[in-house]
Amino acid sequence: MATSSPAARASFLDPVILARIDNLQLLARTVVEGFMQGIHRSPFLGVSMDFAEHRPYMPGDDIRRIDWRLYARTDRFYIKQFEAETNADVAFLLDTSASMGYGSGEITKLDYGRFLTASLAWFSAGQKDRVGLYAFDSDVVEHVRPSVAHLEKVLHAVARVRAQREGGWDRPLDRVGSTFRRRGILVVVSDFYHDPDEISERLGFFRAQGHDVVAFHILDPAEIDFPFVQAANFQDLETRELLPVKPEKLVGAYRKQVGTHIDALGRLFGKQQVDYVLLNSAEPLDEALYAYLVFRQHRRGGSDPARMALGGSVGG
Prior knowledge:
Number of helices: 12
Distance between the termini: 25 Å
Strand content: 15-25%
Strand order of the largest sheet: 5-4-3-6-7-10
CATH architecture of the largest domain: 3-Layer(aba) Sandwich
Structural class: alpha/beta
CATH class of the largest domain: Alpha Beta
Order of helices and strands: HHHEHEHEHEEHHEHEHEEHEH
C-alpha cells in the first residue's frame, strides 16, 4: 500500500503552490498522481475490452454473453459487461463568468476551478473515459466534444479561458442539452451565483435524461466569512456597479444570506439527485478529488473509493 504524509499530499494539492506551475498538463498530472499516492490501489481493469462487471439480462441481449456459471449459482441470467461499456462520456461545465475572477488571496475562483477541472479531466482520462468541455459565461465560450483523444484539447481550452463577462445559465445549458446526447456524466464547476431553484431545475433535466451530475460549488474564503472591517466601495464583479458598504452593519445579514443560499443549493440539488460539493478556494484539492472518486465508485456500483486507481499514464 502506497502511503504519504498529509503534509506531503497537501503540497501537491495546495492551490497557491499549483499556481506556480505554468503547464496545465503538468499541473493536472502532479495533482492526480500526488493524490493517488495516498490511496490504496488495486489493479486497474486493463485495456478497454477487459471484463468489468455484470448486469441483468434484458430481451435482445446476445445470449452468448450470458454468464452461465453465475446463472448456476443464482438461477438468474446476467450479462458480462465489458470495460468499453462502463467507460463514460464526461463533460466538464466550467463557469468562466466575471464573478469567478474574484480572489481575496493569491488565486481566483477561476484559477481553482481551472486546477480542479484539469485534474478531474486527467483522472477521468486515466479511467479511459471520453472527456469533453463546455466553458461558459452567458454562452458557451469553449466547447470540446467528449473523446478518448481530447484530453489535451480540454486542457488547452481550460488554460485559455478568462473571467470577463456577465454570466447566465439558459443558453449554455441549452447548448449542452442539444449536443451532449449519449448518457454520461456532467461535472459542473461554478460559484453558482444564480437562483438555486432555476439551477437545480435545469440540472435536474439532465438527471431525467439519464445523465449523472456532480456540482462543485467554489467560493472564496472572503465570500464565506466576510472578514472586512473598514467601510469601502464594493464592486459587483459582473455589472461593475460600485456599492458603498459599512461591513459592521452588513456582516450578520451577509453571512445569513450566504448560508441560506448554500443550504438551498444543497437541498434542491439533493432533490434532483445531483451530487453537491462545497469547496473553499483556499483549501487543497483533496476534498474535491476524493468526492469525485466516491461519486465514480458509486456510479460503478461499488462501495470502496480506494479501489479506483489511475489506468496508467495519460498524455505521455
